[in-house]
UniProtKB/TrEMBL annotation, chain B:
Keywords: Cell membrane, Cytochrome c-type biogenesis, Heme, Iron, Membrane, Metal-binding, Signal-anchor, Transmembrane, Transmembrane helix. This is Cytochrome c-type biogenesis protein CcmE. The lineage of its organism: Bacteria, Pseudomonadati, Pseudomonadota, Gammaproteobacteria, Alteromonadales. It comes from the Bacteria. Its main location: membrane. It is found in: Cell membrane; Membrane. It comes from Pseudoalteromonas rhizosphaerae.
Amino acid sequence: MWKWLHPYAKADRAYQLCNTLLPYFAVITVVFMIIGWIWGLAYAPADYQQKDSYRIIFIHVPSAILSMGAYSSMAIAAVIALVWQLRNAELAVIAIAPVGACVTAIALITGAAWGKPMWGAWWVWDARLTSELILLFLYLGVLSLYHAFEDKKAAGRAASILAIVGVINLPIIHFSVEWWNTLHQGATITKFDTKAIDSSMFWPLMVNIVAFAGFVGMVTLMRLKNEILQREKHRPWVRQLLNRG
Amino acid sequence: MNPRRKKRLLGVVAIVFGIGAAIGLVLYALQENINLFYTPSELIEGKGPNKEKPHIGQKLRIGGMVVPGSVIRDETSLQVSFTLIDTGPLVTIKYQGILPDLFREGQGIVAQGVLIEPNVIEAFEVLAKHDEEYMPAEVAEAVKGIKHEKPKYNLESGN
């Protein structure tokens, strides 16, 4: 059943797959980001209470969603790296980590910029903000743990274990606004029963989420290509590739 | 799946469940302390299974909805007072300073301050809590009957 996946365990096939996928991600990112930002920032109507300040939602929410999405993919790669001991999965963990750290930082910074005018404070130690900050530290922890080892095999294993342990934080982030009293508002998009966001704002938000997903995917693929090349730099296929280019 | 992989997979699952259970227990034990604020009913009736009430002079945060019509501003200073409600009891907040943009009657807020009487708090910080609803002004008018204009406050002298 999984036979068709087996060739991609080889570094050169995985490298080729990255090359094939990359243009699709690039096109999705560019098209959706242009549409999403112009639609969201210029054409979507202003909110009835927050006026134009709410527009930060078009960057804040996609980056927050992707910070958790990227972490889940990193953890899945980490499980594969530990159980099946595929080196490509290890490289994927380390390819995703800095990208995830960046979107998490974007979510935190845009959130602070919105919080100052709306709440009246840059930062509050409520459960949602604190758990998202912990997510950033987890990303940084995975990264620094990987780079702390001289032996890359041990490094990959240690980073993968930390990535898996950190998965516990994802449900805490998501449900923090329901389990505890927080200053951060509850979930908007996943509140299906009542319409919490008007469709004139919902659709540009969706476009932006797709754009961010494409962007995270694209940068991850580029990083993964680099990691594969670096790890395999003494192999003949890399030499060939370099000679050709 | 070959036995070695199975063993490793079990190891990973055990790590996740073990740590999940540990963190779950920690969060359960800290349940009351992770909440950012007291609600007015918790402040008046006590919080948790032991109905613990905060004592006078304690620094705390309180969150609730500003009772419409309760905002009283002093005409000559930034002094303002208002009442908070959640499900029943009322708590009065006194505050001197600039209120955030989103502060209005009927809006949720979180105030940090010192309890000076069982139901009066002298706040040094007032934060507005926004809800999860986003809509354009016209829709809000149609759905909620909210006119899009700056709210009016009752001035003490009836100005």
